[in-house]
Structure to design on (453 residues):
């Protein structure tokens, strides 16, 4: 019966990428950061799934889509502990950890209301500052720091 | 790639010292027509008297011609033209762009679009590197050195971009700092962290008198109303410090008072006639330093 197979339908991925162990609340933002909104691939999203690590975790499965490390690493800004499983022919062929990027472009807004990037069509550029796990973004243009909340 | 001057940190210590040496040359010889035939744009999207006149004088004394505007309201900017288009257009006409703009980061952005060097003459509350270089020049000319000096910064240390840039530049020269400011306008933590990382000593006080007799440079600043978003906060702190000649009896003989000008009430007029006042000469130094910046970036010095 279709209804009995529901769980299988959600978990099984023939080919694609699984992003796991994300904080539940960042799942929507992760779709933004990875430019997944509006694409044609089949995407399965889980929010508030039970997890030993977080209590509640988020998961995203994207069928027939594989990412460059550089693309995925942007996710480290909001989900540093997320894991990436690459699936081929129903098998996990690669597990990856995210690496915090040194610079990011076009994915965060500067918090400084007087920054040029908030007034003119300028693509934002930031240097990622990591001070004892405390992540902030230094604007390439106005030289002010934005905290990571500016991503949300 | 063209060399632009956007932030004081774009220049190495050697480049800073080179600019100061070249400025000395121009102080001895104020007219030096080495840029004959060049055209330089001074585009000021926000009014400024001192900085614009000083840059335009520098261009003229180097023999180049100036085009530009001193207020964006009569230009295509008021028709909604983007900064990108303005800069693209202007950079096709000229050999260098000197710009001031109220938005922070605008000069960095312009330098990425422009095909000619850009000099930042102030981008909002962010950077104003020619001011920093003329401050360094003034310190060197009055003290005979930059190394090992005690600098007391007074006034608005929270919003004052001149003090932030001067702090970054002076940190190359083994200084000691004093930060004199009311609670509301204290030096931001990120700049104090910058000093801590480099092992540079600093003290903080709310009293103008406390370190007056031990500093070599007293760097006074105006509390700038235009930088405040909350008018109540401004009312609380305006006029918090007033320096009078009578307070200077115990200061070091070599101590000089600097101020980026314009001043309001923070330095009384009776200080002007003391041997410690240097702020008018400091403003004059801006001319020589700007001549040095322009000729260096264009490859003539």
């Amino acid at each position: 019966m279709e209804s009995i197979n529901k769980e299988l339908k959600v978990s099984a991925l023939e080919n694609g990428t699984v992003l796991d162990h994300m904080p539940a609340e960042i799942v929507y933002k992760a779709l933004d950061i990875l430019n997944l909104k509006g694409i044609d691939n089949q995407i399965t999203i889980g929010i508030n799934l039970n997890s030993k690590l977080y209590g509640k975790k988020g998961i995203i499965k994207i069928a027939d889509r594989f990412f460059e490390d550089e693309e995925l690493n942007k996710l480290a800004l909001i989900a540093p502990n997320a894991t990436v499983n690459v699936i081929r022919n129903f098998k996990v062929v690669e597990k990856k950890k995210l690496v915090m990027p040194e610079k990011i472009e076009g994915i965060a807004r500067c918090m400084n209301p007087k920054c040029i990037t908030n007034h003119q069509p300028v693509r934002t550029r930031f240097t990622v500052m990591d001070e004892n796990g405390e992540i902030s973004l230094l604007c390439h243009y106005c030289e002010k720091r934005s905290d990571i909340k500016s991503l949300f | 790639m063209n060399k632009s001057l956007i932030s004081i940190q774009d220049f190495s210590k050697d480049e800073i010292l080179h600019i100061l040496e070249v400025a000395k040359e121009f102080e001895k010889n104020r007219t030096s027509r080495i840029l004959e035939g060049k055209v330089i744009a001074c585009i000021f999207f926000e009014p400024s008297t001192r900085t614009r006149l000083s840059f335009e004088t520098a261009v003229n004394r180097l023999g180049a011609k100036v085009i530009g505007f001193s207020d964006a309201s009569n230009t295509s900017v008021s028709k909604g033209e983007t900064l990108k288009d303005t800069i693209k257009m202007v950079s096709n006409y000229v050999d260098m762009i000197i710009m001031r703009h109220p938005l922070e980061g605008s000069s960095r952005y312009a330098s990425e679009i422009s095909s000619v060097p850009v000099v930042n003459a102030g981008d909002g509350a962010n950077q104003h590197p020619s001011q920093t270089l003329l401050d360094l020049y003034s310190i060197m000319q009055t003290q005979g050195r930059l190394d090992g000096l005690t600098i007391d910064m007074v006034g608005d240390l929270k919003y004052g971009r001149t003090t932030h840039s001067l702090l970054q530049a002076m940190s190359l020269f083994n200084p000691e700092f004093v930060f004199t400011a009311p609670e509301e306008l204290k030096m931001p933590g990120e700049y104090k962290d910058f000093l801590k990382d480099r092992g540079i000593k600093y003290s903080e006080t709310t009293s103008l008198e406390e370190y007056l007799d031990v500093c070599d440079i007293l760097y006074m600043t105006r509390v700038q109303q235009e930088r405040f978003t909350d008018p109540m906060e401004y009312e609380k702190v305006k006029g918090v410090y007033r320096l009078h000649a009578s307070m200077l009896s115990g200061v070091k003989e070599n101590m000089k008072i600097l101020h980026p000008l314009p001043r309001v009430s923070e330095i009384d007029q009776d200080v002007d006639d003391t041997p410690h006042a240097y702020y008018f000469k400091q403003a004059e130094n801006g001319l020589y330093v700007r001549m040095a910046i322009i000729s260096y970036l264009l490859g003539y010095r």
